[in-house]
Amino acid sequence: MLRAIMTKPGKIIFEDVQVPLVEDNKVLVKMARIGVCGSDMHVYHGKHPYTSYPVVQGHEVTAVVEKCGAGVVDFAPGDKVTVQPQVFCGKCAMCREGDYHICENLKVMGFQTEGMAAEYFQVDQSKLVHIPDELDLDSGALIEPVAVGIHAVRRLGNVKGKKVLVFGAGPIGNLTAQSAKAMGAESVMITDLSDFRIQKAVECGIDFCVNTAKEDLKEAVLKNFGKDGADAIFECIGIQPTMDQAVSIARKGTTIMVVGVFGDIPRVDLGLVQDRELTLRGTLMYKREDFDDAIRFMADKKIVVTPLISRHFAFKDYLKAYEFIEESKDLAMKILIDIF
């Protein structure tokens, strides 16, 4: 079988290796789709702080079960699945409390341990999640990023009836906004500087889609949410300017969820945080219930992902996918690698 290996930033080679022998309690899956995300691009640029080379990438996936080990009971050949890519110790304080997604020894497939950029992959049955018939192979590869948005909203608490402001209309911002709406938010406003991404947000049914290069943020908040402003804010870009905007626009007592991954360490006006009793909360990845909700909302069409799929690339053109994202900038949303 072929396996893609990033040997150094910007270079991918293909290696012909033996198909794994199936062990007890493990499942051999035939990979179908792999999504490329912003963290993958950090690896491509050599700027991911927790990934070394060589590395086999791939963590947003759809696959089909090929063969099951003797101890596997919940899966059978032909099942359509996705993979929850966290590898955790099960022993640390966070794991013992059920928060394995922030395990003290957390590894993620495609970053600190082998990812799924291969024609076949062997995985423990506990990492597999069934994909229902309502979702096709393309949609299955977006379950993982949808789960990121759902977990971020769940971290906030009950959003029913709330007015939610989301900074960043890239894939994660878009899916976080859709998640907030699916989980009961009264209304959701999303902002970006890109007309293309704002249009995608409109296509996904987000209530208020604002290009802040053309419309003043404060005026947009007043127009869409009224004088009380947003009840909750999600920063989904990970850059200094939007962190500044989030803190400055927040009304007193507001919670700001930090969803974006910051490449550079930001400065935060803690004077405003203190004076307004703001709450800054971080959110990382997801748990199994977030995957389950992602699938349910997608199957019920409360969250739509098809408008976000920008282009497909063949497996052997893996590197071209990165080059396309690099060249297209904000005109690329979700890029999928087709393995079959």
From TrEMBL:
Question: Which top-rank group of organisms is this from?
Answer: Bacteria
Give a yes or no for keyword Membrane in this entry.
no
Q: What organism is recorded for this protein?
A: Ruminiclostridium papyrosolvens C7
The identity of this protein, by name, is Alcohol dehydrogenase
Give a yes or no for keyword Metal-binding in this entry: yes
Looking up Gene3D superfamilies in the UniProt record yields: Medium-chain alcohol dehydrogenases, catalytic domain, NAD(P)-binding Rossmann-like Domain
Q: Which GO terms describe its molecular function?
A: metal ion binding; oxidoreductase activity
Domain Enoyl reductase (ER) intervals: 10-305
Recite the UniProt keywords alphabetically.
Metal-binding, Oxidoreductase, Zinc
Q: What is the lineage of its organism?
A: Bacteria, Bacillati, Bacillota, Clostridia, Eubacteriales
Family statement:
Belongs to the zinc-containing alcohol dehydrogenase family.
